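User: I've been trying to design a sequence by hand for this structure and keep getting stuck. Would you show me what you'd pick, starting by listing the structure so we're on the same page?

Assistant: Good idea, let's start from the same input. This is the structure you sent:
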């Protein structure tokens, strides 16, 4: 089974500077591109953007159960992530896509923010039956710190080890990995290929967003590097804000991107 895993970045599908604001037309456009590709065996993952990031940041969920507000904060974060997820599923159904939702927080077990256990048999079966499994960045039970956030990248990292996809596409709001944050520096250059040799060359120091809780571009690069090593998948970071680019990437056309080879 030639599986493709596609991430729709939170920065693409929500207004990151406005809490709980989805970009509906962008969501529709990207889902249409996925549908138009007519590929089978697609797993969609999506980030949370401005939905869960605000409560996650406020209650410091990434640090675990740290005080008496942590449980309530976790509940708020889980709800916010699932609200955006529900919008994505509704939009898929509008397009008559056979979405099959998987909430990571219901069954993931993590330890120190890394997923340790997750029964992927239902996801595999859903694919075999012809569904489009949809996962998303969520909270999870953590054996070390009580609770944590599992980013879509972490979810893909775990799934890729089990399902061995042949391609992983991460759609975000920049053309790929640059020598430094392209939004903050004019001289930033796109790094077209990342291997072990230049893995640590890029500068990720700019913290652009008030509410980022999942580690931004650095965590994507490290997770993709590991995924590429574990599954030998083609790992690509593309700009999903550019119309048609996701479709081209799924179709195997050459697009502006960063390819990560473990
Ligand atoms: P998403 O919400 O799509 O998962 P993030 O906002 O977490 O994406 O990460 C993408 C952001 O990372 C870009 O918008 C960019 O501003 C920032 N960034 C920081 N350093 C870099 C870099 N070296 N190359 C590319 N982007 C970078």
């Amino acid at each position: 089974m030639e599986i493709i895993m596609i991430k729709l970045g939170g920065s693409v599908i929500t207004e990151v500077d406005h809490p709980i604001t989805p970009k509906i037309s962008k969501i529709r456009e990207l889902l249409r591109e996925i549908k138009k590709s007519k590929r089978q065996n697609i797993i969609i993952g999506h980030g949370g953007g401005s939905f869960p990031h605000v409560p996650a940041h406020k209650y410091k969920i990434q640090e675990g159960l740290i005080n008496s507000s942590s449980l309530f904060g976790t509940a708020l974060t889980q709800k916010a992530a699932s609200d955006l997820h529900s919008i994505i599923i509704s939009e898929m159904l509008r397009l008559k896509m056979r979405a099959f939702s998987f909430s990571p927080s219901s069954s993931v077990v993590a330890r120190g923010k890394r997923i340790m256990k997750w029964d992927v048999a239902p996801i595999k079966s859903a694919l075999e039956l012809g569904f489009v499994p949809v996962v998303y960045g969520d909270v999870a039970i953590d054996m070390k710190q009580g609770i944590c956030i599992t980013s879509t990248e972490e979810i893909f990292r775990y799934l890729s080890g089990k399902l061995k996809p042949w391609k992983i596409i991460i759609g975000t709001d920049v053309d790929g990995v640059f020598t430094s944050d392209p939004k903050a520096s004019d001289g930033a250059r796109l790094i077209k290929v990342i291997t072990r040799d230049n893995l640590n060359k890029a500068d990720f120091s700019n913290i652009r967003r008030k509410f980022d809780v999942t580690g931004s571009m650095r965590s994507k690069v490290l997770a993709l590097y590991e995924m590429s090593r574990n599954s030998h998948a083609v790992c690509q970071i593309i700009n999903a804000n550019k119309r048609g680019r996701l479709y081209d990437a799924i179709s195997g056309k050459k697009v502006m991107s960063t390819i990560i080879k473990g």
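That's my pick for every position. To get oriented when you compare it with your attempt: The chain has a mean pLDDT of 95. The domain at 4-260 is CATH 3.40.1160.10 (Carbamate kinase).
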